[in-house]
Amino acid sequence: MDVIIQNGLVYTGDGKAPIRADIAIRNEKIIQIDRSIHKHANTVIDASGLAVSPGFIDVHSHTHAELLINRRAESKIRQGITTEISGNCGMSPYPLSDYNEKTWHDRSEQLFGVRTTWRTLDEFFRQLEDPGISINYGTFTGHGDLRISVMGHTGRAPDRMDMKAMIRQLEQTLDEGSLGLSTGLEYAPGSFAETEELVTLCRPVSARGGRYASHMRDEGDYLEEAVGEVIRICHEAELPVQISHLKACNTPNWHKADTVIARIQELIDRDYPIGVDRYPYTAYGTTLEIFLPLWSREGGTEKILERLEDAKTCKKIRDYTDMKIAHMGGADRILISYVSHANNRHWEGYSVEKGARETGLSPFEFIKKLMIDDQNGVEIAGFAMSDENTEKILSRPWVSVGSDSVTWAPYGALNVGNPHPRDYGSFPRVLGHYCRDKKLFSLEEAIRKMTSLPARQMGLKKRGLMKAGYFADLVLFDPERVADTATFVNPKQYPKGIHTVIVNGKIVLQNGCHTGQLSGKILRNGG
Question: Which pTM does this prediction carry?
Answer without folding.
Answer: 0.97
